[in-house]
What does this fold into?
Amino acid sequence: MERRQYNKPYHTDHSIVYSCQYHVIFCPKYRRKVLTDALAVRLKELILSKQADYGYAVIEMEVLPDHVHLLLDVDPRIGINVVVAKIKGFTSHELRNEFPWLKKRLPTLWTRSKFIASVGAVTLDVVQQYIENQKGV
It folds into this structure.
């Protein structure tokens, strides 16, 4: 993954201020190395195309032959699990239609599993300390 300076954004609405980023990893079924060449390019295009519709922003993305890494900024009112499910469902449908050989190679494009980790600007210890210090305020 290429590293870029990224200022943690805060999004605001009439009733919420939030900043929620997640590292997401998911794999093709049987960890097959099918995410190459034109298919990898198209996968990136599809993921980028649904940002506004599904309530996320791609901060970073890397497609390797047997797995995908995403760094996403997600609206908490939608939720990361819902966003990842929508991304996997949409991309599976589109890629299997555009690349028919995938249907012969895999019963489904993606495994059911995924890795999701929240990404913060500070450590857990810093947040715990901040909350502890609020008692005295």
